[in-house]
Design a protein that fits this description.
With 261 residues, this protein is of the alpha/beta class. 39% of the residues lie in helices and 18% in strands. The protein is built from 9 helices and 11 strands. The protein has helices spanning 43-51, 68-72, 76-93, 104-115, 132-141, 159-164, 173-189, 210-219, 243-257; strands at residues 3-4, 7-8, 19-21, 27-32, 55-58, 96-102, 120-124, 147-149, 170-172, 197-202, 225-230. The strands form 3 sheets. The protein has a 7-stranded mixed sheet with strand order 3-5-4-6-7-10-11, sandwiched between helices. A two-stranded antiparallel ribbon has the order 1-2. A two-stranded antiparallel ribbon has the order 8-9. Strand 6 (96-102), helix 4 and strand 7 (120-124) form a beta-alpha-beta unit.
Length: 261
């Protein structure tokens, strides 16, 4: 990975590449990572799904695995378009398809579930709205200070996991502004989500509010819905203390509603 004025693109030599983990042909799941993240952070969920016979695909979303400067120039519609294309490819080859997303990936998963044919949904640490300070300042400050340092690293409680987590060391504020635009789209379409949905959230999350996950559960039209609070984890739950518990719950949920349970 190349470096940038915001610092090295990745923090550690871990496997941040996209993945395609084989299942048994009939069912698949699209696994979507968060803003400034990589497929590494949802790979544990993909691995658990593959064990249950569900093919798991984790693409790199536009602007990621490159540099903060590249990400700063990507509109949120590019993330939506890329995720939609991946979903439609899976749908063309599999009878049942689920969407699984972390943070920004959770927003994309909800949008896809509202607008496309989806059989099951799992979202983790999904921020529907930031606080007023972020909402008001980011559109202005992004022109004066394009990058904000991530003090303390990624929002992970597990010290070793945080130390090796691949992510940009800075947050492009233009990308945060695009995320806000995506949040508005998702808030407006929650009631169109009808697929069975598992909503998970780390109790110590400093990035997204637990109240947002409760709102998702209350707002969707899904008959089957469940809220799972992970007591020992922060934002990036799949690689935090409760990662195994989340992976098992996500895999069981998807398997149940894609015929693999």
């Amino acid at each position: 990975m190349r470096s940038s004025e915001g610092g090295a693109a990745l923090r550690a030599p871990v496997n941040a590449a996209p993945f395609d983990l084989a299942g048994e042909g009939r069912c698949a799941a699209l696994c979507l990572h968060g803003l400034t993240g990589t497929p590494y952070e949802v790979r544990p969920l993909g691995e658990a799904l593959a064990v249950r016979g569900v093919r798991a695909v984790g693409p790199v979303l536009p602007g990621h695995n490159l540099s903060p400067e590249v990400l700063a120039g990507v509109p949120h519609g590019a993330w939506v378009q890329a995720a939609r294309a991946e979903l439609r490819t899976l749908r063309a080859h599999h009878a049942r398809v689920a969407v699984v997303g972390l943070s920004m990936g959770g927003l994309l998963a909800l949008l896809l579930a509202a607008e496309e044919e989806v059989d099951a949904v799992v979202v983790v640490g999904t921020p529907l709205r930031f606080g007023p300070l972020v909402r008001w300042l980011v559109p202005l400050v992004k022109h004066l200070r394009p990058f904000a340092p991530k003090r303390g690293g990624s929002d992970i409680r597990h010290d070793e996991a945080r130390a090796i987590h691949p992510s940009y060391k800075v947050m492009p504020l233009a990308a945060v502004h695009e995320l806000q635009r995506l949040q508005r789209r998702v808030r407006d379409c929650l009631e169109c989500v009808t697929a069975p949905i598992l909503v998970a959230h780390g109790a110590h999350d400093r990035t997204a509010r637990v109240a947002d996950s409760r709102r998702i559960v209350e707002s969707v039209a899904s008959e089957e819905r469940e809220l799972l609070i992970l007591d020992e984890s922060a934002h990036v739950v799949p690689v935090d203390h409760d990662g195994q518990r989340l992976a098992e719950a996500a895999a069981e949920w998807v398997a149940r509603y894609t015929g693999r349970g």
